[in-house]
Design a protein that fits this description.
The protein has about 425 residues and is of the alpha/beta class. Helices cover about 30% and strands about 10% of the residues.
Length: about 425
């Protein structure tokens, strides 16, 4: 059941008719102008922001189109390997940068995080690139997840040999490093939920394999059970809303959001653990450190512009079908957030405070079975990494960069996540 619209927030959850559409148009225009001004300041020029008419005509005739989709342009990048190695970009793809604290030359281009699959990139690159940081899921793992008896598709137990495989009725679509794994593991404790443990990446990387392939990856369910999956990169993939809408227009969507500054640092920390040789966060975060221009083409920064991505989803799905979960409250009050998730999915509130134990060492809650005396099950060592120390001035500039986008996001969702208040308390 959707909560009522918040007083004083026109177009919030539960609102209908012209006021909601008016708010969306206003937010879209404001978002467009904000992003355009920042792009012009960054020296990319208006030509870098492609108009809707210039976007690929991938949507079916008559399908909704986003009126203000402004993808971030970026230089072509190599999907993997060091400069000069296989797949390294040509020198002309990444011109040298001035020595003002920014990256220089082709090495800098290689060290940039690739765009998520499906995002529109600069026309000269001619292709989409896979972001290896999004998931380590392989075809072999997906095949195992869809096989009988696999643990990968289970809820509170292994996948049964009875029932049938169905397309998911609910998806956790984002965001990366927001808390999606914690949410998935918590909701899988519910007996009426069956979720595949691996990330299928169907709507961004594997769409050409078809719906039958996607269905086969899902766990078997009984009548009345909900089939789910989570792939965080869907939220920033331009084609995902249209593709999901084509599968089932009543699909329920869950987005776990987190303070975008903290999320960006967490994203960088994950990359650093895999590529210790990358430049510092401070270097990667700026187009020009001297002028204080944030580099929004870096995915660690771009993903946190939630309003920009949400605007695309609202062309296909109403707010009543999207639940926004606070990544911060998922840590401080996991039972409270899970109550909202279960209500949204139409489930009985079975996952409660009895299912959680706060692990002080890791810094986040762990799951346990109330009837079981065994030790709580915590997320793996890849979760809860210690963040590197970041220059306070860089954090301050990032907060200023994100603030207008955060305000738009609050207006679009009808929810105040209080990220600015959280920062002022530090």
């Amino acid at each position: 059941m959707s909560p009522p619209a918040q007083p004083g927030v026109p177009g919030g959850r539960g609102s209908k008719g012209p006021p909601a559409r008016k708010l969306l148009c206003m937010c879209s225009l404001s978002l467009c102008l904000t992003y355009l001004c920042y792009s012009l300041m960054g020296g990319t020029g208006p030509a870098a922001l492609r108009s809707p008419a210039a976007l690929p005509a991938s949507a079916a005739p008559g399908a909704p189109r986003s009126p203000t989709a402004f993808p971030v342009t970026a230089a072509p990048r190599s999907p993997a390997g060091p400069p000069g190695g296989p797949g390294a970009p040509a020198p002309s793809a990444a011109p040298p940068r001035a020595s003002n604290g920014s990256r220089e030359g082709a090495a800098g281009a290689w060290l940039r995080t690739p765009l998520a699959p499906g995002e529109v990139i600069a026309a000269q690159s001619g292709a989409f690139e896979r972001d290896p940081q999004e998931s380590s899921t392989t075809d072999e793992e997906l095949s195992r997840a869809g096989s009988p008896g696999s643990r990968g598709g289970g809820g509170s137990s292994t996948t049964p040999d009875y029932g049938e495989k169905r397309l998911p009725q609910a998806l956790i679509i984002g965001v990366k490093k927001g808390g999606t794994r914690a949410l998935l593991e918590a909701i899988r404790a519910h007996p009426d939920v069956r979720a595949v443990g691996t990330e299928p990446h169907f709507f961004d990387r594997n769409y050409e394999k078809g719906l039958e392939w996607y269905r086969n990856v899902m766990p078997k369910t009984l009548e009345g059970q909900i089939t789910m999956e989570k792939t965080p990169s869907y939220f920033v993939t331009n084609e995902a809303p249209r593709r999901i809408h084509s599968m089932a227009k009543d699909t329920k969507l869950i987005v776990v959001v987190r303070n975008p500054v903290t999320r960006a640092i967490s994203d960088y920390t994950q990359t650093l653990s895999k590529k210790p040789e990358i430049p510092t966060f401070e270097v990667l975060a700026f187009k020009n450190r001297t002028l204080g221009l944030i580099d929004a083409s870096w995915s660690a920064i771009r993903i946190g512009i939630y309003a920009l991505h949400l605007e695309n989803w609202l062309q296909y799905f109403p707010l009543s079908q999207i639940l926004f979960v606070s990544g911060e409250r998922l840590i401080t009050d996991p039972a409270g957030e899970m109550a909202k998730v279960q209500d949204f999915l139409g489930l009985k509130r079975i996952v409660t405070e009895k299912h959680f134990y706060f692990n002080k060492t890791k810094g986040f809650p762990c799951l346990k079975k109330p009837e079981d005396s065994s030790a709580p099950r915590c997320l793996g060592k890849s979760k809860g990494r210690t963040h590197p120390k970041i220059d306070p001035d860089v954090i301050h500039r990032l907060r200023k960069f994100y603030k207008p986008f955060n305000v738009m996001f609050y207006q679009m969702t009808g929810q105040d996540f209080q990220w600015e208040q959280e920062e002022s308390d530090k």
